[in-house]
Amino acid sequence: MPVETSSTNRLPEPSFSLRRRWTEKQAISYLMQQGVENPGVISLAAGLVDPGSLPVEETRQAVRELLADDRRAREVLQYGTTQGAQTLRQQLLGHLARLEGCSVEDLGIDAEQLILTTGSQQFLSLVADALIDPGDICLVAAPTYFVFLGVLNGLNACTIAVDTDENGMDPDALEAQLIRLEADGRLDRVKLIYLVSYYENPTGLCLSAARRERIVEIAKRWSKFHRLYVLEDAAYREMRYDGPVLPSVWGFDGSRESVILAQTFSKSFSPGLRVGYGVLPRDLIAPICDRKGNEDFGSANFNQHLIATVMQRGLYAPHVEKVRDSYRNKRDCMLRAIDTHFAGIEGVTWVHPHGGLYVWMTLPDHMETGFTSPLFRQAANVEGVMYVPGELCYGGEKASRPSHQMRLSFGVEEPSKLDEGTRRLANAVRAVV
Amino acid sequence: MPVETSSTNRLPEPSFSLRRRWTEKQAISYLMQQGVENPGVISLAAGLVDPGSLPVEETRQAVRELLADDRRAREVLQYGTTQGAQTLRQQLLGHLARLEGCSVEDLGIDAEQLILTTGSQQFLSLVADALIDPGDICLVAAPTYFVFLGVLNGLNACTIAVDTDENGMDPDALEAQLIRLEADGRLDRVKLIYLVSYYENPTGLCLSAARRERIVEIAKRWSKFHRLYVLEDAAYREMRYDGPVLPSVWGFDGSRESVILAQTFSKSFSPGLRVGYGVLPRDLIAPICDRKGNEDFGSANFNQHLIATVMQRGLYAPHVEKVRDSYRNKRDCMLRAIDTHFAGIEGVTWVHPHGGLYVWMTLPDHMETGFTSPLFRQAANVEGVMYVPGELCYGGEKASRPSHQMRLSFGVEEPSKLDEGTRRLANAVRAVV
Fold this sequence. Notes:
The first copy, chain A, has 433 residues and is an alpha/beta fold. Chain A has helices at residues 18-22, 27-37, 56-68, 70-77, 86-100, 104-107, 119-131, 146-154, 171-183, 209-221, 282-295, 301-312, 316-341, 374-383, 415-432, and strands at residues 42-43, 114-118, 137-141, 158-162, 164-165, 168-169, 190-196, 229-233, 259-264, 275-279, 349-350, 358-362, 385-386, 388-389, 405-409.
């Protein structure tokens, strides 16, 4: 037999797939783990939600109802379908109609176009997986949600950063990129425009209504080789504390062919249940469901029925109101803390967000904020406070990424800790200035 | 501007990724949906579990405990980690030790090597994703679990079917394939040997202990270019009704470097909670967790704590005993029904399974069982009974796949329906014979 290796030799190394080699550890995994494991450090980093606002009583009530009757209990403990529980998808049509300010009929979709996933993260990942080959292009705001950038990198996609200002992604800059890509003969590789449309993670800014409409028009007009999709990540849509109620990007897509909408119950209800959902143009239903069939053939049926019960019993809307009140208070507390503790440090600016979980802070140009920077080490190891380095939130060329910004979250910590964390952070900035 | 498409034109078609184009609708999605939507048809197809044996009271008790205290309730409604709840991973070490018949210390692993997933399906899919590039080779039993074949096809992997007999995959045939692949210069593409080690889905057969040991030895010896992994799918391990207690394939991998073990609570407890898990050789921890970080950064934390509580309170083992009793009875009922209703139909044989959920039936050579065959149509449309066509369960060359077999499940239907479904199936066979 043509075998030479003896059993006492060390085995050779594994040989991983290209996809594994493209995949880096998600910084969010690292930060979430740090948050869970180091209760002494104040985390202005983790996107964990406020423990105090988690729906304990609502969950008790819904679970009691789900399990009260043996027959019903067995239904929810059984397998569901790949696409997700029909009862929740039906509820979601009403929910979306309320958010869009229209009737269910005027939504122009049916429950078949809804898919339930393990958080909206799985939905975003499935969309990318179904559309993007290595080298394909996704246009993203600069900065944008770093976890989705990780997903794109894991597919060896090419991310191109589009300039943004206080109204979100600039449509003129978007169009300029498309013109440039067409001139370079690369327009056929452009598959997606990714937008976090409400209280962007990390900046807290909203895309203005006028820009929403223009970007949909641009996506349709630039669908020359194939359909160019807009992936609207509306994770923070319901987390509005003040400021205008904005229509979704999806709402401007009259034909329902070009915008893919992702939403979730992780922020507005409970992330521990991991129920997210997406609204799909008809052409994408089978591709996304088939990919999900391979990945897990369905998320937890029990959890989907739990959320459906919460909505049916009218427990959801009042809970969201409570959540909003709580985060509004925490946002105010954090902004006050920044005013207080950063007073007198020159060249520091920050965004006042009207929703979401984040305050985006810009330090003087020379002050690096990355994981290996003196500031991060001073903050984490000396002061005991963590943040998300802003450079993680940029796609495009590495060299051109700003590295003097921070995403500060008021999500997980209670008000007194927000104040103390901000004080520690200001100390760290002063120490390395 | 170089734009010609007017907004009234129809938009062009989407352009999907290669991976989407490789992916077919999972037959299981189709069959599960049929099972859910057509309560009139008796399903000997769906791998749904027995509703009567679902753990209603156990779940009530565990949920009551989880939610009794506000602080604890908030912990389980919060995000968990990508790898899964530490408390359940710790419990699982004890559980595995009991199954292996050794102490936790003698397991030779720690909780870091355990990852919690959305059913074991997500674990299998993650392993394939991290190891397999298009064209890479996975050796599988003939027949084997068709859903995993779908996962492999979705990666454009090459599946090679290895002959099996009543003792499972034949190690001589496995080695002959490896010799042939080496001669063809393709050994460097061989990444995985996939085994359903207990009560194989679809055949109900077990790999014999001697073969388990030999296959591990073969995997190590043939790790010439890189580590050749064995992926042991032990989904039905705890579903033993009689016959010997077999050691796992994983147990024969003394160095814990070559065998990846997948298990689940879907069959032994509740599929609606979607909690599966895997045991990883150390080199695979980061690759699998990183891929999961991209896919969903963690399955439902609530559900993991629920299962942990069930185990901590000693509710799990007695429940598994009840489940076993119930399925043993249903298996006996189905075998009796086959004896009765197939009496006098020539050339029909079937396997007597000692565990799992399936009876594998072979019809005369000429009698096709596929979705488009006269038999399937007669069974589904005229008689009102569904089964899984055997041809779905074969990898390798399409032309060489047997097409006269059926997987019959006694999982979901109650005894009287099993009898009636078997009667209908025998009628369908008689009608097309």
